[in-house]
UniProtKB/TrEMBL annotation:
Xref: InterPro entries: DinB-like, DinB/YfiT-like
Protein name: DUF664 domain-containing protein
Domain of life: Bacteria
Coiled coil: none
Annotated DinB-like domain residues: 11-145
Cited Pfam families: DinB_2 (PF12867)
Amino acid sequence: MVPEGTIMDNLETQREDLLKRLRNLTEEQASFRYGPEKWSIKEVIGHLADTERYMAYRIFCIARGEKTNLPGHNEEDFVKEAMFDTYSLHTLLEDYTLVRNATLQLLKNLRNDVWTNWGNANGFSVTVRALAFIVAGHELHHLKILTERYFQDEDFPA
């Protein structure tokens, strides 16, 4: 669940928390997978940036009055195609930061009345406001998984 406060404050705090937690990892640590067929930490970071881009596009479209059904995406295919493990941790964190900053700027510039605009994303009715909170909730979900399944794994590189 997203903590209390404005969505802008939450997204800014999340950005700082994620960077603080991950910026000092080694490349070996960032490439760690807690199990076969599980994403590496690099892939999680890339996935967060990709998904936020996708959600920001939906926010943009619905805020501008788009009424067509905005398509979904297959996150597994996106991660596989992106080949995030070939990038440095620094590059992935820089990309994440730029995406988050762009999302914050987009949200900052929305008129108050468009936050309640309804649209259709992947067959589901959703508001601009809900999508902003989905961005925050999605990151919380993955940070919890990183903490519980990656950093606490007995095989996580020291």
